[in-house]
Amino acid sequence: MKNPLLDAIVRMGRVALFLLRVLGQCLPSLRYPRLLVAQIYNAGARSLIIVMLCGLFVGMVLGLQGYDLLQRFGSESALGVAAALGLVRELGPVITALLFAGRAGTALTSEIGLMRATDQLTAMEMMAVDPVRRVVAPRFLGGIIAMPLLTAIFNVIGIFGAQLIGVGLIGVESGSFWSQMQSQVETSDINEGLIKSLCFGVACSLMAVYEGFHAEPTAEGVGLATTRTVVSSAVLTLLLDYMLTAAFLNS
What we know:
It contains nine helices and no strands. By secondary structure, it is mainly alpha-helical.
């Protein structure tokens, strides 16, 4: 009978060893700049539409809910601060990571898994080409670079959505909306969101390439690996979010 706890510990060890292997090949993989740029495009540019659309609607909902909450305390003018802090410190990095896992992460897993199923990775090894350096590391780096950029775009569009509802629809004064945001949002808040997005980028990209590289060489195996990527990335993102938030609040 299998022990779920033991299986989880073994899996964590395998992922950690795979991460060390990938990190060791990151610098040598920079010899393929075209491949790295292509992976940044695949992970970042192709996720722009869904990130911008979700950012707009999240900002609009944040504007409605924030105004309703602040109105009870007579602080409607602080809507800009509430929206900016909520997006920059929390909602932006987390939701972007979840969207990244669902769009780019599944694409990376299925792509590498298909290469495993068609023996392309085995062929590389037979030709003395390290598949981790040639295939995995550029995709891993591309995801890490793309995540903060996508998060920044999500935040900007989200703040625009909150301003669209708060100022354009509800009638909050535009000057107080922007002036309080500029005076209250500090560099430490932006740094917190940046660090979170980088950590989430590492976690989501790692799970995507790990599951694809170790997928069973069958259609069913690739499908299961894609499912595990989404689940593992979501759980890791929320776990890391709690740990990082607690660390920043206690610092």
